[in-house]
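Hey team,

Filing this mostly as a record. A colleague (T.K.) asked me to run one chain through the structure pipeline before their review meeting, and I want the input and output archived in the tracker in case anyone asks later how it was produced. No errors, nothing strange. Just documentation.

Input sequence:
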Amino acid sequence: MKKILVALFALTLAGNVQAAELGDDGLHKTDWMRDTFKDLQEDLADANAENKRLMLIFEQRGCVYCKKMHAEVFPDPEIAKVISDTYFVVQLNLHGDIEVTDFDGETLSEKRMARKWGILFTPTIMFLPEEVGPDLSAPQAAVAMMPGAFSRGTTLDLLTWVAEKRYLLDGDEDFQRYHARRILERDNGSTD
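Output structure:
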């Protein structure tokens, strides 16, 4: 009976998170994505003003992995809350023509910027630090990148690892070790 009540509660929570809809460009749209002029220095300043981290997400029309993330991972109430509360998300189209101005000042279409940055897979999520010098491109400045679709646990752990700035901590717990520890904690029931 307890398992049934927990499952019903989880379904109720999941129902409160709105699923992404497809935009005119064929990309999934969520309420936590920002519509900006795609000038990364301005986007970073806006993210900092809101005390959030800048997160760039490359997607493309018809991407089955993007669909998986938007159907199975991003709607998870805990993940949706972490993204909404912590991240300033700018969506980029792997084959798009909207101009993007990189931190180094170069302005290119989304598709040409994707080539410059070496983006091959969608979704690819790039996490930026609070400060980026004018001589760096976004991937050079990124503190982490997530190329492809991952499970709820991996996604939540990466979002948390970046938000907590664990990449700056001294010691031996890089993301892989952090994620392995979190998996063990979840399996042992010491966290959800």
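Quick notes for T.K.: The helical segments are 2-15, 40-49, 64-73, 77-86, 110-117, 138-141, 152-163, 175-187. Residues 1-17 have pLDDT under 50 and may be disordered.
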